[in-house]
Specification:
Blueprint (H helix, E strand, L loop, with lengths): L1 H24 L12 H20 L5 H15 L3 E6 L3 E6 L5 H7 L1 H6 L3 E4 L11 E9 L2 E10 L4 H41 L2 H17 L1 H18 L6 E3 H19 L3 E7 L7 E3 L4 H13 L5 E10 L2 E8 L6 H8 L11 H12 L6 E4 L5 E8 L15
Parallel strand pairs: 7-9
Antiparallel strand pairs: 1-2, 1-5, 3-4, 4-5, 6-8, 9-10, 10-12, 11-12
């Protein structure tokens, strides 16, 4: 990430220089309306225009995103025409001289293959066409050329060559950020699929076996458990969004624990202490349920006597503090460290490392799981969730199907 931010900072600097140049060359004090010097006004306008062009590009290089950003990019360069291309076609042409599309694409093979800029004269028989020169600047992401920014003007200009190259670098940074966002989304989706795949087959088998055992002796109880099972699986395998609310996650946990209690009876006791004000807090989907399943596994399946699980969610100012605690068998802290580091795979069930990794990806390294445990001393897992985080928005509760 630091490389992308550094690239972004480097790409902004040419805009400041471009704004300075525009201020020296074009701005007039009487047109500024009292908004500083000509240079300050031009610099502000340049950065403002760049900020308007950036959002579409953060979705990648497509015909739609190119169309939405081309006008802003042409304004930055002050050219008669500008086009954005991928490796096969012109995605958008903004300005005059659109009849040069075919010629432009025919001349792009060399610059795109070599990954270097180039300026060349255009052939045109139209006497009223102001476009005579084209400046090509490749758009690269991770050293791969994805397309080109082509600025067209009446005459050759060394300033335009340099400015087009710097704007193309800035566009490339936006495309790199888009690629990073898409990679992060694919990673999160893969991890959610991994969580779904790891939902214990033994849990599903045991739940259905418990339900079947009540069919003859207590049909109404069997029906209730079947509905709990249906609601839990529907939530776990939903396809709507990467995030959910704390309320929905706790609702799914309640379905899960209802099935566990049906199996283990009075061997499991549970304490819930939830502050109502934290229920709307958004968090990564399937983030807490694996922690509760871990508590059940180490609290019940690892010993013969009773187990108590305590779940609390407290309001802690700008954060929600969620704690899941059991009095089960616990774990060796060194083994836990190796599991979270990915050096050792957990034996069965869903590992804690998946949840820890996703929390760090979404909120930063300061928001990983805090786990306290020792052999025979149970386990206490604390998760801190910011109440407000850019880009973290929960999906609406999934309606019954």
């Amino acid at each position: 990430m630091s490389g992308f931010l550094a690239g972004l900072c480097i790409a902004i600097l040419p805009f400041l220089a471009l704004g300075f140049w525009l201020g020296r060359r074009t701005a007039r004090p009487e047109s500024l309306g009292g908004l500083g010097t000509p240079v300050e006004h031009a610099t502000f306008q340049t950065l403002h225009t760049a900020s308007l062009a950036a959002p579409p590009l953060r979705a990648g290089l497509t015909e739609e995103t190119a169309r939405k950003s081309a006008r802003r990019l042409r304004t930055l360069l002050g050219t008669d025409a500008l086009c954005l291309t991928d490796r096969q076609q012109v995605l958008v042409w903004d300005g005059v001289g659109a009849h040069h599309r075919t010629e432009i694409m025919a001349r792009l093979a060399g610059p795109l293959d070599a990954g270097r800029g180039e300026a060349f004269r255009l052939t045109c028989d139209a006497p009223d066409c102001p476009v005579r020169w084209a400046v090509v600047a490749p758009l690269t992401v991770d050293d791969r050329v994805h397309g080109a920014l082509v600025a067209c003007a009446p005459r050759e200009s060394a300033v335009l060559v340099r400015a087009a190259g710097e704007v193309a670098r800035w566009v490339s940074v936006q495309l790199e950020l888009a690629d990073l966002d898409q990679s992060r989304t694919r990673l999160i989706e893969a991890e959610i699929k991994a969580l779904r795949a790891q939902i214990s087959p033994h849990f599903i088998f045991n739940s259905l076996a418990v339900i079947a055992s009540f069919v003859r002796t207590d049909p109404e109880r069997a029906r209730e458990l079947l509905l709990e099972f249906a609601d839990f699986t529907r939530y776990s395998f939903r396809r709507h969004g990467d995030f959910t609310t704390l309320a929905d996650e706790l609702h799914a946990i309640d379905h899960y624990l209802a099935l566990v209690r049906a199996r283990f009876g009075d061997r499991l006791s549970l304490t819930l202490q939830i502050a109502p004000e934290v229920l709307p807090v958004a968090l990564p989907f399937l983030c807490l349920q694996p922690l509760v399943e871990n508590a059940v596994k180490h609290g019940l399946e690892g010993k013969a006597d009773k187990c108590h699980i305590r779940i609390t969610a407290q309001d802690a100012g700008a954060e929600a503090l969620v704690v899941i605690e059991d009095d089960g068998t616990g774990m060796d802290p060194e083994l836990l460290r190796r599991i979270l580091a990915g050096e050792v795979s957990p034996s069965g069930g869903i590992g804690l490392s998946n949840v820890d990794d996703r929390l760090r990806q979404v909120y930063g390294d300061d928001y990983g799981l805090v786990i306290e445990t020792a052999p025979g001393a149970g386990m206490k897992i604390t998760a801190r969730l910011p109440k407000y985080q850019p880009g973290v928005h929960s999906a609406a509760r999934l309606a019954p199907e």
